[in-house]
Amino acid sequence: MKKVLMMLLVLVMGISVLWPVSVMAWEDPICSQLDPIADADAYIAAGCGGGGGQTVFDKVPGAVMAVFSIAGIIAAGVIIFGGVRYSISQGDPGKVKKAKDTIMYAIIGLIVTLLAFAITAFVLGGIQ
Length: 128
Fold this sequence. Notes:
Layout: H1 2-24, H2 29-33, H3 40-45, H4 56-87, H5 93-127
């Protein structure tokens, strides 16, 4: 069980590190259609160049939302996993306790994730 949780933690941390890189590499479809030389005024007006583009703070909320979404999905999966463990425990007190602990810790993790999302949304809303 500890190995599975560690693998999930490493997966979430890896995605959270790599996600901003993929968000930064995203190309705006409007900017890719405009020629920066021929349509210079339209290019700058669309926010594609001339200092009018998106900053890091414009892209952070999307990356943060993705990380929290992934954490919520993982927490829901662990709750389901705990429910399956509970249903196949066959009344063994040790297995029942482990299953209940798994469900309880997953719910605590989900609550912490929701609170972290609310705090982050509040802070990012204050920055923008």
